[in-house]
Specification:
mainly alpha, single chain, 222 residues, globular
Length: 222
């Protein structure tokens, strides 16, 4: 119980940090497109809460997180308004912002895999595919939760989604999902294992940022 309570508190804090960072990234992207304040706040909110919303709708997992906890909408709104006033400072410290975004990515991926695995345990109809199905759903939900908000942001801002061209991003979310699914399967899911997984995913994302690690790119034309 001690681990359970601590884990919930830690992930609530990380989740707030994550949606704050994603909200600010949405604000910056919308601001670069000269949107008005309504457009900026809308993009910021979609960026911050979009990943979890897409996941929950695909899984039929209701009520939606932001419906159950409407205070998260307030967090994204405040973060967006704050980002409007400090946008120039954020842009100048782009690497720092990517670091905070990386923390949000791995947190969202972990939470997504947790929900995906739990839902799959009760939804997979064929017992022979229970383990396989649970792992696949957990990893898919880790990726979807981690990257969907950013994809929605970039599409609405008429940009090529960052996840399809930046340093290792979706792969980090997938790794977090795999590791977390393993801890769930072997019943080793606790605060310590959670922090280890988050640290591994975070470190990999930081290495990708600073060392410019990419997946191989396909060039059809020279």
């Amino acid at each position: 119980m001690y681990f359970l309570v601590d884990k919930v508190i830690v992930f609530q804090i990380l989740y707030v940090i994550g949606i704050t960072a994603e909200s600010m990234s949405g604000t910056i992207s919308a601001g670069k497109k000269n949107m008005d304040i309504f457009g900026i706040v809308t993009i910021a909110t979609i960026t911050a809460l979009g990943g979890g919303t897409v996941r929950d709708v695909l899984l039929g997992y209701y009520p939606l997180t932001w419906v159950m906890y409407p205070e998260y909408i307030l967090v994204t709104f405040i973060a967006s308004i704050l980002a409007i006033f400090i946008a120039r400072h954020i842009v100048k410290r782009h690497k720092f912002f990517l670091i905070v975004d990386a923390l949000g990515l791995v947190t969202f991926a972990y939470l997504g895999s947790d929900i995906g695995y739990s839902v799959a345990q009760h939804a997979v109809s064929n017992d022979h595919f229970m383990i396989f199905g649970s792992f696949i759903i957990a990893v898919l939900m880790a990726i979807i939760t981690g990257v969907s908000g950013g994809v929605l942001r970039d599409v609405l801002c008429n940009d090529v989604p960052l996840v399809f061209q930046a340093e290792l991003y979706a792969l980090v979310a997938a790794l977090v999902g795999i590791l977390h699914a393993l801890t769930l399967y072997f019943k080793m899911d606790n605060l310590i294992s959670a922090l280890i997984i988050i640290s591994i995913g975070f470190a990999l994302r930081l290495c990708a940022i600073y060392k410019n690690w990419h997946l191989p790119k396909v060039k059809y034309f020279s």
